[in-house]
Design a protein that fits this description.
homodimer, alpha/beta, 8-stranded mixed β-sheet, binds nicotinamide-adenine-dinucleotide, cytoplasm (chains A, B), 3-OHacyl-CoA_DH (chains A, B), 3-OHacyl-CoA_DH_CS (chains A, B), 6PGD_dom2 (chains A, B)
């Protein structure tokens, strides 16, 4: 929505799976990217990895190469890489000491107004930014893997992160085509990995109990829920699964999930009555029951198109 | 794979959301479908609902109408609907007494060799088929909602279900384009709803704890995991998320999920060491580490195509 879209300089610190993917996100949107990795053997491979990421997401090999040539510089010192940066993406090893030491350096060598964003999967931001002079500009920007392919990104502030920094981070991510979500509290595992973790734990339990094979557990998701959830989220999905919407769905099937919650020694039901009421209200405000059937058709037509695309062999691109 | 693909007669008993969706699956594959519902007011709406399901999945309105006219008969008695059936799909209310009474009748009025399939979401098959004369031909065929759109289907036998009935059910479902999975044990909630339930419980907990809004919880899945899982299952996905594959992924991130398992008062870790070893072996046998990077490119290119499709407005069909 910004009128003068500014070209930014983004520094990528740590150029592994995630760093080279973030680099692709910014380069393809027309920004300048400066890359640093402390491992010299990694530096050599960056160009290839980044070019592959650009090609896989942009499609056009020529345009990818041109974007790479025009927009990316690989640096051999941290100072050089971050000197001009408006935003620094830290994507180094998932170790608190490594991040703490790095953020201390970043806080000193970057422009004081630069946003310092960490890709950490699960380390609370407070554990490695507390003592910094400009800690108000630090924020977690945790991507789905890999971010050049998957837009979902969680943005998690520390108690001392500036509201303006959070706002700017969210809007920059939107501008480059990501789908940022604000995680309002520093919750263990944030939100995304907790969702993934809940599913993975259940998959492992089912395999261990001899209920399904690992390949079949994957297949139940790939050929089922994933197609649906790519079109409507898991909550909206259950709202469409009974003619009376979420309210009827919970009345009919809630006890299946209540039993699961109980197995986990949870004292609460699957969903608290107050949250259930609130969600039913939200869903009915958005989609009156008389429009449910039309929404289902919309969902089904979109999923049918996804299936046709996925059924194509890679040779018939 | 069958050489003489036979035209079957399939009876749909209970013509609500699921029954009318099963009907579409069989009709569009060229089989004859006989429908019955005990509620007369439902009978009137069946044609429209079924036609919509055919159109949404087949795409072509003319062909859909022709398939409906040629293949579907709506009956006003159960006996007439099931008389010629090779397979009966029961999709009536999720109540054990209703299913028990119905299966007793079905066992009497159907051809003795007909497969009796229940769509039940969570009632163990043993609770409503035990006393039947021909209980060996009963099996649960539990679809993802709706089956005319989502192929994943779990097939759950009772202890007394014939192995041949299970085999035939699996292969018929394959033939009509579903993606059937054998659930080897009658586990509470089977497999599919347990996977969905695990995710939904976690979503509700995050919303209740004020970590994310409901809309954002849906978005994290829709714009992230779902796109990935439509291309590679959740287990295969984590195998691709570290350069050293699943083994390295678990070493790096396993503790995030171990902590989640512990919160649930589970005594076990997220994944047992023996299952982890077995899965690492399976994944490396299928995909040697040197091919991991190429597989990631394949994944990313496919997801990029899905995203382009989903980004199209409904008007640019
Ligand atoms: N792989 C995933 O699924 C995933 C998903 C989301 C977030 N993350 C997070 O992203 C971060 C990076 O993960 P990854 O998978 O890209 O790891 P990776 O091992 O592929 O890459 C890390 C890179 O950082 C470099 N590095 C280490 N210490 C450094 C330092 N002090 N200065 C500069 N470079 C340094 C390493 O040489 C390596 O190239 C981690 O915090 C991880 O938790 C990973
Ligand atoms: N909706 C879902 O998400 C879903 C998913 C998978 C499985 N299922 C299962 O499928 C079955 C049907 O669910 P639904 O969502 O289609 O419900 P629904 O209420 O939409 O349809 C049920 C239909 O069965 C009819 N019926 C009831 N008793 C009958 C009887 N004795 N004989 C004939 N018809 C009878 C009703 O009139 C109604 O039309 C249930 O067992 C349910 O657990 C539902």
């Amino acid at each position: 929505m910004q009128v003068n879209k500014q070209t930014l300089t983004v520094a990528i610190v740590g150029a592994g799976v995630i760093g080279c993917s973030w680099a692709a996100v910014w380069v393809r949107a027309g920004h300048r990217v400066a890359i640093f990795d402390s491992d010299i053997s990694v530096l050599e491979g960056i160009r290839d990895r980044l070019l592959r990421n650009l090609r896989d997401s942009v499609g056009d090999p020529q345009a990818s190469l041109a974007a790479l040539e025009a927009g990316v510089v690989i640096h051999s010192t941290l100072e050089d890489a971050v000197a001009a940066a408006d935003l620094v993406h830290e994507s180094v090893a998932e170790k608190v000491e490594v991040k703490r030491e790095l953020f201390e350096r970043l806080d000193r060598v970057s422009k004081p107004e630069a946003i310092l964003a960490s890709s950490t999967s699960a380390i609370p931001l407070s554990q490695f930014t507390e003592g910094l002079l400009n800690r108000h500009r630090c924020v977690i920007v945790h991507p789905a893997t890999p971010p050049h392919t998957l837009p979902a990104t969680e943005v998690v502030p520390a108690p001392w992160t500036d509201a303006a920094v959070v706002e700017r981070t969210l809007s920059l991510l939107e501008e480059v085509g990501q789908s940022p979500v604000l995680v309002k509290k520093d919750h263990p595992g944030f939100a995304m990995n907790r969702l993934q973790g809940a599913l993975l734990i259940e998959m492992f339990r089912l395999i261990e109990a001899g209920v399904v094979t690992a390949a079949d557990a994957d297949k139940l998701v790939t050929d089922g829920f994933a197609l649906r959830w790519a079109v409507v989220g898991p909550l909206q999905a259950i709202d469409l699964n009974a003619d009376g919407g979420l309210e009827e769905y919970l009345a009919r099937y809630g006890d299946i999930y209540d039993r699961m919650a109980m197995e986990r020694h949870e004292t609460e039901r699957f969903v608290s009555p107050s949250l259930a009421r609130e969600l039913v209200k939200q869903f009915r405000d958005q989609l009156p029951l008389e429009q449910l059937e039309a929404k289902r058709s919309w969902r089904d037509q979109r999923i049918a198109k996804l299936k046709r695309l996925l059924a194509k062999k890679d040779s018939d691109r």
